[in-house]
Amino acid sequence: DRLRTTPIPLSFGHHGHRCLVGFLLGLPLVLFQVCGAATPFFCSALAFMALGIDESGAQIEQPFCILPLLPLCNAVQAEVEAMRKMLNERQPN
After folding, report:
1. What are the tens digits of pLDDT across the range 63-89?
2. I need a labelling partner for 64 at 20 to 30 A (CA). Which of 9, 38, 76, 81 fits?
3. CA-CA-CA-CA torsion sign (73, 10, 6, 53)
4. 46, 66, 55, 45: which is closest to 17 by C-alpha?
5. How many angstroms separate the first and last alpha carbons of the chain?
6. pLDDT by residue (tens digit) across 22-74?
7. CA nearest to 58, candidates 21, 17, 22
């Protein structure tokens, strides 16, 4: 529960995203000399991949928002309590 409520500073995600966008904005200026008319295609493909990886990283930072962990934790807790109850019934007092 503490992990889920511990905030991650927004500057961590924003700084990386801003650097990536700056890189992607400058990329056509460099690639135009090499790729010519195909520059928009290559820049679009690279931007799609890089921004996808950035988004995946953002989701991995906060897995509790996208993964259904609460039902899983409740099921595990119920199983553990059932096993504890079963063990207590087997042992004589």
Report:
1. 666 677 778 888 999 999 999 999 888
2. 81
3. positive
4. 55
5. 35
6. 999 999 999 999 999 999 999 999 999 999 999 888 777 776 666 777 788 88
7. 17
Q: Which two tokens stand for residue 69?
A: 């962990």
- From the list 53, 55, 49, 46, the residue with the least C-alpha distance to 25 is 46
Q: Which residue has the tokens 């988004």?
A: 55
What is the residue type of 52? G
Can you tell me the distance from the alpha carbon of 14 to that of 2, in angstroms, rounded to the nearest whole number?
A: 23
Distance of CA 68 to the CA centre of its chain: 14
